[in-house]
């Protein structure tokens, strides 16, 4: 996490009675990174985002961003939403139907010089992968395209904080992967804190560097996502069922007889999958279940599995009889589900080398919409 000297740091302590059964009472500190707000339905995640944004006034607390006080109940400070320079994207993209894509992206730049506005619209459109859509009417866009337009609109006024309320929950696999890739890229480019709400454990672990676990309106745990989710004693978080690895990539080529296809993932890794009827260069989304990945201390000879990929252990989360191992391969973060004894058997530890063993038929491929 960024230290006190980070130019864009969110420091917030808010309390607010939402209804008789829910009171928000949370403290969050976030630097130029992606923080994940995680918790069961009704925990108050969306309400907390609205309190931070200024859409809802807290009963008490203090919110500062980049050293500026946005809310202070003790001193009567409550900066209006329009002056807070906070961007937001939601499940519903909330695009303006009477404006084209360029008009939507540039909406928050009203009052700026036209040339500057057009330059910024072009810049964020390129970052979000929508440069070719600027002249389109929003009703002609796919769900994934609409959400990327929403992201570009939120980024255009150069916000100091981006709040994301489950923006990919209604998208298909390619749409989710594309938006998350763009979000990660623009966060690095803009160097601002991002607070992201999700119900997906695998999304939380692969996207975020810090997880805030909210339960009944209160933060009950905070830290690296895999460790927080594995350490909680709430039954629904005791194990990460259905952990998936989802990446973007392109078809690199095919084997003789249409038996297999080589895929180049965005991040430097190549995988062999069962034959995909797509030409070389076609954009795809690639999914591998964490439970379908085997771990080995080194290369293994005599296996039918077509993929053996070397990486480095980033984190290990053991809980009961199970464990999740987070492995960095190039620029990609993989999640592997295994037995609790496996890290000891293989002498795994953060920073140690490990090989991922993946069968070709465990690599599922979907065509990208873009």
Structure explained in plain terms:
The chain is an alpha+beta fold and 370 residues long. The protein folds into two domains: 10-237, 3-Layer(aba) Sandwich (Rossmann fold); 244-367, OB fold (Dihydrolipoamide Acetyltransferase, E2P) (Beta Barrel). It is 21% helix and 36% strand. It is built from eight helices and 21 strands. The strands form four sheets. The protein has a six-stranded mixed beta sheet, with helices on both faces. Strand 8 (161-165), helix 5 and strand 9 (194-198) form a beta-alpha-beta unit. Helix 3 (114-127) crosses helix 4 and helix 4 runs parallel beside helix 5 (173-190). The relative contact order is 0.12. The model is unreliable at 1-5 (pLDDT under 50).
Describe this protein with a few key phrases.
single chain, alpha+beta, Rossmann fold, OB fold (Dihydrolipoamide Acetyltransferase, E2P), 5-stranded antiparallel sheet, 8 helices, 21% helix, 36% strand, globular, disordered N terminus
SSE layout:
Layout: E1 10-19, E2 22-30, E3 34-38, H1 45-53, E4 60-65, E5 68-72, E6 77-78, E7 86-89, H2 101-105, H3 114-127, H4 143-155, E8 161-165, H5 173-190, E9 194-198, H6 201-207, E10 210-215, E11 218-223, H7 225-231, E12 244-254, E13 260-265, E14 270-274, E15 283-289, E16 293-296, E17 307-319, E18 322-329, E19 332-339, H8 342-345, E20 353-358, E21 364-367
Parallel strand pairs: 3-9, 3-10, 7-8, 8-9
Antiparallel strand pairs: 1-2, 1-4, 4-5, 5-6, 10-11, 12-13, 12-15, 13-14, 15-21, 16-20, 17-18, 17-20, 18-19
Question: What is the name of the CATH architecture of the largest domain?
Answer: 3-Layer(aba) Sandwich
Structural class: alpha+beta
Morphology call: globular
Query: Roughly what percent helix?
Result: 10-25%
CATH superfamily of the largest domain: P-loop containing nucleotide triphosphate hydrolases
Spatial gap, N to C terminus = 34 Å
Regarding CATH, which class of the largest domain? Alpha Beta
Assembly of the depicted chains? single chain
Calculate the mean pLDDT score and round it: 88
Low-confidence stretches: 1-5
């Amino acid at each position: 996490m960024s230290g006190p000297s980070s130019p864009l740091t969110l420091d917030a302590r808010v309390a607010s009675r939402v209804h008789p059964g829910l009171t928000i009472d949370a403290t969050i500190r976030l630097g130029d990174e992606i923080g994940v707000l995680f918790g069961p339905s009704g925990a108050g995640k969306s309400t907390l985002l609205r309190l931070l944004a200024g859409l809802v006034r807290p009963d008490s607390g203090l919110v500062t961003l980049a050293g500026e006080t946005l809310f202070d109940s003790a001193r009567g400070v409550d900066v209006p939403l329009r002056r807070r320079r906070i961007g937001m994207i939601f499940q519903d993209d909330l695009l303006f139907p009477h404006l084209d894509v360029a008009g939507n992206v540039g909406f928050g730049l009203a009052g700026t010089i036209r040339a500057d506005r057009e330059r910024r619209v072009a810049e964020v459109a390129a970052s979000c992968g929508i440069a070719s859509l600027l002249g389109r009417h929003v009703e002609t866009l796919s769900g994934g395209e609409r959400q990327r337009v929403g992201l570009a609109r939120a980024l255009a006024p150069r916000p100091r904080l981006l709040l994301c309320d489950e923006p990919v929950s209604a998208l298909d696999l390619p749409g989710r992967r594309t938006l998350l890739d763009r979000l990660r890229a623009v966060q690095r480019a803009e160097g601002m804190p991002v607070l992201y709400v999700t119900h997906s454990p695998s999304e939380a672990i692969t996207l975020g560097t810090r997880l805030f676990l909210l339960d009944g309106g209160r933060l009950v745990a905070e830290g690296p996502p895999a460790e927080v989710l594995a350490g909680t004693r709430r039954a629904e978080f005791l194990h990460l069922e259905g952990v998936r690895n989802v990446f973007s990539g392109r078809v690199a080529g095919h084997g003789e007889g249409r038996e297999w296809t080589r895929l180049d993932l965005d991040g430097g890794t190549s995988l062999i999958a069962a034959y995909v009827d797509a030409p070389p260069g076609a954009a795809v989304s690639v999914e591998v279940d964490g439970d379908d990945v085997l771990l080995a201390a080194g290369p293994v000879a005599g296996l039918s599995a077509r993929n053996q990929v070397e990486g480095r252990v980033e984190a290990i989360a053991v809980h009961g009889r199970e464990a999740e191992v987070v492995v960095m391969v190039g620029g990609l973060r993989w999640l592997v589900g295994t037995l609790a004894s496996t890290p000891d058997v293989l002498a795994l530890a953060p920073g140690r080398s490990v090989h991922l063993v993946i069968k070709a038929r465990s690599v599922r491929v979907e065509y990208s919409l873009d």
